[in-house]
Amino acid sequence: MGLNQKINLALLIVAWAIFVLPVNTFAQKPAEIIPNFSFYKLDNTPFTNKNLALGKSKLFIFFDVTCDHCQETISTLNNRLTECNQIAIYLITLDDKLKISNFLNRYGRNLMMERNVTILRDKKDQFITLFGPRKYPSVFLYSSKKKLLLYDDQDLKLEKFFKLINSGV
Question: What single string gives the DSSP state of each residue in 93-156?
C-alpha cells in the first residue's frame, strides 16, 4: 500500500469516526444507583444522600428555571401531586434561591408546601457528573433500595412515571 493510499485510508477512518459513529455513543448514562452527593436546601442546610427518605421510592427532577419544558414538567407534577403521597420528591437545580422561589410560585406552588418534596440547590455543580442527565428536565425514579427504575428527559407530562408510581413502586 502506497503512502497516498495510507493517507486516504486514515482520512476515511477519521471521517467515519466523526460522521458515522452515533452521537449517543458518547452520551452520559443515568446513574443506576443513587450516588453520594452533597446539595443544599433553600435555607443553605446541607443535604446529602444520607438524608434521603428511607423505605420510599425517590423521584428526582433536575430542572432549570428558564427552561420551557421544565415549566411544563413542574406544572404537571404540581397538578398531580396527590398521586405522589407515597414517594419522596427531590427537585434539584443550579439556580439561585430567588429564581427558584419565583419559578415555583408560578409553576409549582403546591410543591413548596408538601412534606414529601425537598427543593435542592446544586451549588457545587455535582448533579450532572454524578447522575448523568442528558438535558433539562431530566427525571429519575429510584426504588426504595436506591436503584434506578426509570429515567426520561422526553416525558414532559410524566405519564410513564405516574404509571409506575400508581402501580405502587
Answer: ESS-HHHHHHHHHHH-GGGGG-TTEEEEE-TT--HHHHH---SSSEEEEE-TTSBEEEEESS-T
Summarize pLDDT for 83-131 with one digit per residue, the tens: 999 999 999 999 999 999 999 999 999 999 999 999 999 999 999 999 9
158, three cell numbers: 410524566
Q: Right CATH number for 28-166 from 3.40.50.300, 3.90.180.10, 3.40.50.2000, 3.40.30.10?
A: 3.40.30.10
pTM: 0.84
Separation CA 88–CA 81 (nearest Å): 11
Cell of 129: 457528573
pLDDT digits (tens, 9 = 90+) for 30-40: 999 999 999 99
Domain spans in the chain, listed from the N-terminal domain onward? 28-166
Tell me the C-alpha distance between 111 and 64, whole Å: 16
Q: What is the end-to-end Cα distance of the chain in Å, rounded?
A: 61
CA gap 79, 149 in Å, rounded: 23
